[in-house]
């Protein structure tokens, strides 16, 4: 890690000096509609994300991998979880390129439909007991559909809102769709909480299907709202000047490879941390610590509320103090709290677990996410912004968010084997889980020193900041 922050490029310095009135002006009704429409799509994506995380921890192993034992079944279910992440870069590159060529609205409408249909169908597929090996095969295919759609959804929402928002308030408005993430996660946790309450042995009945089938409701609302969404002003202006870029994949990575690389560094702590906290915290509490499923889910529900505050703090403070500086501070909070958070989770006290998760994940991790909302779009040039943000988000998601729960479940399994005589043999895994989050945070802190802050740059500029 170097001790000096990267120096701003001339275009970034010019953007900082430019007055706010140089920006386009969007009617406030259009701005609000864009914000809440993008937020609903984010809710759809992260309802699916959190739902599958909880299902992997609580029900998918016995239902789709019943002959592998509890531990191997858990790893196998998180393996299908990883499949969804593995295909996200392909979805990001494909739909990102389409978004830069045909518009943000077109792609956002398609991706939310793809994700919603896939999630609803998971609630309809037969289990292993009914159709044997075809059950996990169908599960994997639907996860691939989810992953392809999710690969461009959040990138498109961030780009759309950054291009809609007035200069000086991009961080605030770009963070609003991310509240959809917390909403989706919270609703998923609530639905599973009440499903478990209604059917304590949720694996044996049909109750596990209900949360997935409820995706249909969110899907219908999201599609309706996105059909009435206007195209981003920045894209409309670029299209009117016939300035659309048509880059080959090789040209794209040659031009933006450096920006994508350091953007991936930013994502390691945020995406990896979010994934391990959301996907693994409940699993750890239930399987390793011995907490019941309802209590473990309630911990995640409670911390999710604080996460909404963390997102808006990250976006708003980024407008005032600089996005990179705020991002770095949030990464440090997550890193320093990593060991205490996992130690406290290992004790199983509900109130203490909620407070710990609220600090490490709610403020630290979501603070990064809020600052990232406008930071990544401002890092890329106009003609390939959607593709650049999607590539950065989704390639890093494979190495950070997709692998994290798999690594975490393996850690719990190995520690459990080593402490086989204890009542809850996976309990001592908190040291390794904390170390994993700490390392991811350290990578991101290092990356922030190589990135000039692009705050308020001209969004019509076709050059990246690196």
TrEMBL record:
The chain crosses the membrane at residues 49-65, 71-94, 106-125, 172-194, 206-225, 297-314, 397-417, 429-451. Keywords: Cell membrane, Membrane, Transmembrane, Transmembrane helix, Transport. The keyword Transport applies. Residues 34-456 form the Major facilitator superfamily (MFS) profile domain. The keyword Chloroplast does not apply. InterPro entries: MFS_dom, MFS_sugar_transport-like, MFS_trans_sf. Its main location: membrane. PANTHER family: SHIKIMATE TRANSPORTER. This is MFS transporter. It comes from Gluconacetobacter tumulisoli.
